[in-house]
TrEMBL record:
Pfam families xrefs: DinB_2
Record-annotated DinB-like domain positions: 65-184
SUPFAM superfamilies cross-referenced by the UniProt entry: DinB/YfiT-like putative metalloenzymes
UniProt name for this protein: Conserved domain protein
Provenance organism: Symbiobacterium thermophilum (strain DSM 24528 / JCM 14929 / IAM 14863 / T)
Top-level lineage group: Bacteria
Signal peptide as annotated in the record: none
């Protein structure tokens, strides 16, 4: 068994969409990312992290941006009484998460001491432009990294968390976006705006 197939099987056994440690029939479930990894290995081309996480680029992020663009500046700034964040603040928070965990911590594009300047974006376009610049770096990282490296430990600047795997960092940032996008959808519905259909 070659290294690429072993990495795909380890990934599938660890993740298996909520059932850690359970094995799956890689050949029988060709739609599963790990099965695609095995197929790619058979062709002699190592599968890249982007092949496993491409839906972030093709589905998740476009839906997030689409939702934000459906709102006026007033709707983006609105928040119900007692609620902690507006849709705009949630969008900035999601961009911050990708900046902190990938751009700063994992890739060190900026030093660990760098801090996010909250409130520096005057409008949605400027926020989305900067977030896209950050995300281009993330996507290139995924395209440059074989799946065999997903378990690699990356140093982190936290005493209580001195390292994290690449796989964990990517999954954490994606999960974070999904969570807060749901909150944005809620704020949209509370204002009578239909969020994008998923």
């Amino acid at each position: 068994m070659n290294g690429c197939r072993r990495a795909a099987i380890r990934w599938a056994g660890r993740r298996d969409f909520g059932r850690p440690g359970k094995s799956i029939g890689l050949e029988e479930r060709g739609h599963h990312p790990a099965a695609r990894a095995v197929a790619a290995c058979r062709g002699g081309n190592p599968m890249l992290a982007f092949d496993l996480y491409r839906h972030w680029e093709t589905d998740l992020r476009p839906f997030t941006v689409n939702a934000l663009r459906r709102m006026t500046p007033e709707q983006l700034a609105w928040k119900p009484p007692g609620w902690h964040s507006s849709a705009f603040e949630l969008a900035e928070h999601m961009a911050l998460c990708e900046w902190v965990w990938i751009y700063r911590n994992a890739l060190k594009v900026v030093p660990w001491e760098a801090r996010w300047e909250s409130g520096r974006f005057p409008d949605l376009d400027s926020l989305l432009q900067y977030w896209d610049e950050i995300h281009r770096v993330t996507v290139q990282w995924l395209k440059d990294t074989p799946i065999s490296q997903l378990g690699r430990k990356l140093p982190m600047p936290y005493p209580d968390m001195p390292w994290a795997t690449m796989d964990w960092v990517i999954y954490h940032v994606m999960e974070h976006e999904i969570h807060h996008r749901g909150q944005i959808f809620m704020l949209m519905r509370m204002q009578g705006i239909d969020p994008p259909e998923i």
